[in-house]
Specification:
Elements (H helix, E strand, L loop, with lengths): L13 H20 L3 E2 L5 E3 H8 L4 H6 L2 E3 L5 E4 L4 H10 L9 E10 L11 E10 L4 H18 L4 E7 L6 H13 L7 H9 L10 H6 L6 H4 L2 H17 L4 E2 L11 E9 L7 E7 L3 H4 L7 E7 H7 L12 E5 L2 H16 L4 E3 L6 H10 L4 E5 L1 H6 L1 E6 L5 E5 L3 H11 L3
Helix pairs in contact: 1-5, 5-10
The protein binds adenosine-5'-triphosphate and magnesium ion.
Adenosine-5'-triphosphate binds next to strand 6, strand 10, strand 11 and helix 12.
């Protein structure tokens, strides 16, 4: 019986895996240029970690986690996001020292039990980065400029960066109260979820996708009007630095995030090209989280981007080809017998080379060579074997030369080196 993949997860097949590799390598390059180092964290953690960081009343923790008990009865969850694990690891390994800044990035699969749709999966990949140890607004702008550069280098256009500030432990409660007061008068127009959120998590109501709720909250008070003096100054500095660097943005005073730990600067990068799955990257400051998870008080900021959504935005004409310089075309049994050693010697010299294992005709082998983008094809038929040569065809100029079988490896290495291949 055929067994299919689990609903909502997807295979990344060789034809499109280049997009993931391309995004990953561009991101790594840029993030390392900005001074970030990679950290690899586990795919599962104690459920408690996510409940305490992301927040008990959030959709992620309430409805979307893959939670299970191990044989000792411990409650574990597949990670729905990366920040909690990175913070946990930094605390575990005493990496957050006072007066020092650490910049970390991660990439890997995340798991959320959501309704599968195009651009929304139950296993999806994120690249994320975190900066610990400073609340300098310069760093907020730097993170955003890094994302801006990344999108530019990936050739992705038509995205909009929206920013907002959610205030701090001092001014957020003031806003929360003002918003609650407003929402209590709008209960009749809100969905059941939002009526429930009014008491526990009123900011999330602003993030509800239902048209009725959007309409009802049109004239909700703005969080920016409630910011304390420090938070306002911080936000002004972030904007000023972005202006200085020429990073375009819009202020969206309704932008809130589905996770509880955010403070001050929050942001999203949106596209109009992916239907309702319009967020490609998101993040913000979380100055209280490290302490909340048992570390010393450490301000921090981070982001995560969704690789599936980014992959869908990559321009078709992206140049991702990695030409294999050499293809060997054996014709007949005697030639095929020569292949294993010859290929082994070429590969030992670091020369990318492929061949035909199926005894195909010259014509179909040439087609295959074209498909893999070979610069040269080495043809070894009966005549060549008798003469002790390989017929080397330059696929671009179509010129053919006879290269002695003895010393073929040296000669091809030299030819390719001469071309800088
Ligand atoms: P959304 O509003 O689309 O549900 P989110 O606010 O839940 O996104 P975050 O937790 O901020 O998303 O994750 C950061 C990014 O990860 C998102 O901007 C998106 O690109 C991607 N992402 C989140 N959930 C999924 C998913 N289920 N499938 C694919 N990508 C996802
Ligand atoms: Mg979500």
């Amino acid at each position: 019986m055929k067994i299919s993949a689990v609903r909502g997860v997807k295979d990344i097949l060789p034809e499109e895996v280049w997009k993931w590799q391309f995004i990953e390598s561009a991101s790594r390059r840029i993030m390392e240029n900005f001074g970030f180092s990679e950290i690899r964290i586990p795919v599962f953690e104690y459920t408690e970690l996510f409940a305490r960081s992301i927040g008990q009343g959030t959709d992620i923790v309430e409805k979307e986690m893959y939670t299970f008990q191990d044989s000792k009865g411990e409650s574990l969850s597949l990670r729905p996001e990366g920040t909690a694990g990175v913070v946990r690891a930094c605390i575990d390994h005493h990496r957050l020292q006072p007066d020092s800044v650490s910049k970390l990035y991660y990439t890997g699969p995340m798991f959320r039990h959501e309704r599968p749709q195009k651009g929304r999966y139950r296993q999806f990949y994120q690249i994320g980065a975190e900066v610990f140890g400073t609340d300098n607004p310069w760093v907020d702008a730097e993170i955003l400029s890094m994302l801006h550069l990344l999108f530019e280098q990936l050739g992705i256009s038509g995205t909009v960066l929206q920013i907002n500030s959610l205030g701090c432990t001092e001014c957020r409660p003031v806003y929360r109260k003002a918003l609650q007061k407003f929402l209590r008068n709008e209960q009749a127009s809100l969905c059941t979820d939002c009526r429930r959120r009014t008491a526990g998590n009123p900011l999330r109501v602003l993030d509800c996708k239902r048209p009725d709720c959007k309409e009802a909250t049109q004239s909700a008070p703005s969080v920016l009007a409630s910011l304390c003096r420090d938070c306002m100054a911080h936000f002004e500095m972030v904007k000023g630095t972005l202006d200085l660097m020429g990073v375009p943005y819009e202020v969206n005073e309704r932008l809130v995030r589905g996770l509880d730990y955010y403070t001050r600067t929050t942001f999203e990068i949106l596209t109009d090209q992916l239907g309702s799955q319009n967020a490609v990257a998101a993040g913000g400051r979380y100055d209280g989280l490290v302490e909340q998870l048992g570390g010393r008080p450490t301000p921090a900021i981070g982001f995560a981007l969704g690789m599936e959504r980014l992959a869908a935005l990559l321009p078709e004409e992206t140049n991702h080809s990695r030409a294999k310089p050499l293809y060997l075309a054996p014709l007949g049994d005697a030639a095929m017998e020569r292949m294993p050693l010859l290929l082994h010697q070429l590969r030992a010299r670091g020369i990318p080379v492929d061949t035909d294992y199926l005894g195909k005709s010259l014509k179909s082998q040439m087609r295959q060579a074209d498909r893999i983008g070979a610069a040269y094809v080495g043809i070894l038929g009966e005549d060549e074997l008798n003469d002790g040569v390989i017929l080397l065809r330059n696929m671009e100029t179509k010129a053919q030369t006879k290269v002695p079988l003895e010393g073929f490896v040296d000669q091809i290495a030299e030819t390719l080196a001469g071309e800088g291949a």
